[in-house]
Amino acid sequence: MEIKARAPGKIILAGEHAVVHGSTAVAASFDLFTLCSLRFHSDSENDDTLNLSLKSVGLEFSWSVGRIRETLSHLGGPFLSTPTSCSTEAVRCIAALVEEQNFPEAKIGLATGVSAFLWLYTSIQGFKPATVVVTSDLPVGAGLGSSAAFCVSLTATLLAYSDSVSLDKNQQGWLAYGDSDLDLLNKWAFEGEKIIHGKPSGLDNTVSTYGNIIKFRSGNLTHIKSNMPLKMLVTNTNVGRNTKALVASVSERTLRHPDAMSSVFNAVDFISKELSSLIESPTPDDLSMTEKEERLQELMEMNQGLLQCMGVSHASIETVLRTTLKYKLPSKLTGAGGGGCVLTLLPALLSGTIVDKVTTELESCGFQCLVAGIGGKGVEICFGESS
Ligand SMILES: Nc1ncnc2c1ncn2[C@@H]1O[C@H](COP(=O)(O)OP(=O)(O)OP(=O)(O)O)[C@@H](O)[C@H]1O
Ligand SMILES: C[C@@](O)(CCO)CC(=O)[O-]
Ligand SMILES: [Mg+2]
To answer: Which of 34, 39, 26 is nearest to 5 (CA)?
Structure first.
């Protein structure tokens, strides 16, 4: 039997990086998905391999289950209902399994994703032969949470076959996990993110798991109900970067300038809290919709200034900011920065002509504009035919 899971990407409205250092962040799911399918091999197939096909990045791997058992069984596990961190020893053993696959040098940045796969698979399912296929609409390494969607969709398929979760396997179409099962899933996905990111806050996997719009601080989430339309233009600069390195660079700057950086993180905390109250406040309140949008734009612009202080902006991001500002549309980077994607709020009454003009100008610079719904469902699973 085949099982599929799909997990959304995310945009961060405020608080990236600062959230790693304990500040509040506000994020929403973004309706581009990573899809993972899992099929265990039956005895009659006589196929004793674990195969991983990463379609969107053009990579295929295959290990004999015996080889994986020989390398990893001394680590204990499966741990299933006890999400467990990948120890230094486990990282070393898994790296050996990844290296044996002659990873193409040009794609070596993707090796952490394969390590996360091996850790999650063997920790949850042990040493069973299977084929796992991952496809994605999300650009990889662009700030839209591809690593989290990868870990969440993979974990969702792995847990679906376990007794630790309760799912009606006869139900047709896409279905959601129950809340306590989502908590387990989210914790496992976080362990995968740790392998990819080094020191994640848990924000990205939490948004991908639960969906909607959330306020997040130190591992705790609060669901937010927006009272204003949040139409966002997402511009991909197509400049590749890696979240792990950017998170580490902010930590190094924090070690060099602890007091100054603590004030920066504190300011971001206030921005995120004000932003979440603003979008939740009833309209019309004291403020008209236009005034609310202007405040939101201002908060996003202030957050961008602080991200520049953290050293995670980039020349390509600055070009996007300058271009959208010509149309009186402030923007901010979203995700880890250093390239990747930029977020621009499109006010409800903004004319379609302006949107077309700004999009055309951005695309003429070689950027790619994406529009997708935000605040939709989190991870879902499908046992039968998916629609
Ligand atoms: N579809 C996928 N197939 C294989 N690996 C993936 C896929 N999506 C993500 N990954 C893994 O995640 C890594 C990219 O994660 P990274 O955190 O650097 O960027 P991101 O998650 O896209 O952006 P951000 O963390 O800023 O939101 C890749 O190098 C790879 O290891
Ligand atoms: C940069 C960061 O804040 C968000 C990446 O999408 C890292 C994290 O929260 O783990
Ligand atoms: Mg990531």
So the answer is: 34
Which ligand 1 atom is the nearest neighbour of the CA of 139?
Answer: 22
Task: Phi first, then psi: give them for residue 303, nearest 5 degrees.
Answer: -60, -40
Same topology between domain 2-222+375-382 and domain 228-370 = no
Residues in the chain: 387
- ipTM higher than threshold 0.95: yes
CATH code reported for the domain at 228-370: 3.30.70.890
C-beta 113 within 6 A of ligand 1: yes
Q: Is 356 a catalytic residue?
A: no
For residue 275, give the DSSP letter. H
Q: Cα of 332 to ligand 2 centre, how many Å?
A: 14
Domain 2-222+375-382: assigned CATH number:
3.30.230.10
The closest of 355, 334, 330 to 344, measured between CA atoms, is: 330
**Closest Cα to atom 10, ligand 2: which residue?**
200
Catalytic-role residue among 204, 259, 269, 356: 204
Tens digit of each residue's pLDDT (9 = 90 or more) over 106-156: 999 999 999 999 999 999 999 999 999 999 999 999 999 999 999 999 999
**What are the tens digits of pLDDT across the range 228-282?**
999 999 999 999 999 999 999 999 999 999 999 999 999 999 999 999 999 999 9
Q: Where are the domains of the chain?
A: 2-222+375-382, 228-370
What is the number of the ligand closest to the CA of 20?
Answer: 2
- Name the token pair of 34: 């990573």
Which of 26, 201, 244 is the best mutation target for the ligand 2 pocket, counting ligand atoms within 8 Å of the beta carbon and taking the most? 201
